Amino acid sequence: MQKNLTLAQEKARHIKLLILDVDGVMTDGRLYFSEQGEIFKAFNILDGLGIKLLRSSGVEVAIITGRKSGALDKRASDLGIKYLWQGREDKRVALDELLAELSLGYSEAAHVGDDLPDLPVMQTVGLGIAVANAYSFVTRHADWCTTSKGGEGAVREACDFIMSAQGTLENQLNRYLT
User: Fold this and answer.
1) Is residue 1 scored above 80 in pLDDT?
2) What is the model's pLDDT at position 39?
3) What CA–CA distance (Å, rounded) separates 169 from 143?
4) Among 13, 59, 94, 164, which lies 20 to 30 A Cα-Cα from 105?
5) What is the CATH number of the domain that holds 126?
């Protein structure tokens, strides 16, 4: 469901920061528990390269999530994500702190979310993106929706969308041609 693709592309041209939720966006939303209570998460490798390509194109990436996870610490470190805000139930407050730290305005940020706690951020930033399997109320209020589900390439799709709108996608892809 694309409300106004041209408007979303125009908003994407101004993005300097992509903010990601984790559960349901970077993962498929399922939590796996060991008998000892340890939580396991699975991250998509396509999303990881998309994040690296987006960062290489000049757009910073941050994570704001309500949960805390050692696995996420490792994943963010592996991807070079410096702005990791875990255990933040009020994501809007975290957004304001993050933008102040980076000296950015709302219109320069995009957020990818899947559920109700993401809406205050999605409605505030310049580009609100919902994953394909987001809660229906969230998709109705997003500027743009991915065709991929969370944890199944949705983050890569969002990264590609922003780079395409900014005219940097082809250069990033062509680096892999011999």
Assistant:
1) no
2) 81
3) 20
4) 164
5) 3.40.50.1000
- Reported as half-sphere exposure (CB side, CA atoms, 13 A), residue 133 has a value of 16
Query: What average pLDDT does this structure show over 43-67?
Result: 97
The predicted model scores a pTM of 0.94
178 part of a folded domain:
no
Four-CA torsion 6, 25, 154, 63, nearest 10 degrees? 70
Q: Is the pLDDT of residue 85 over 80?
A: yes
What total number of domains does the chain contain? 1
- The token pair that represents 62 in the structure block: 């941050």
Measured CA to CA, the distance from residue 25 to residue 31 in angstroms comes to 13
Strand partners, 169: none
Rounded to 5 degrees, φ, ψ at 147 are: -95, -15
Residue 10 within a domain: yes
Backbone angles phi, psi at 144, to 5 degrees: -155, 145
Q: Which residue do the tokens 């528990």 mark?
A: 33
- Give the domain extent around 159: 5-173
Q: What is the mean pLDDT of residues 16-34?
A: 94
Cβ atoms of residues 60 and 162 within 8 Å: no
Two tokens, residue 35: 């008998």
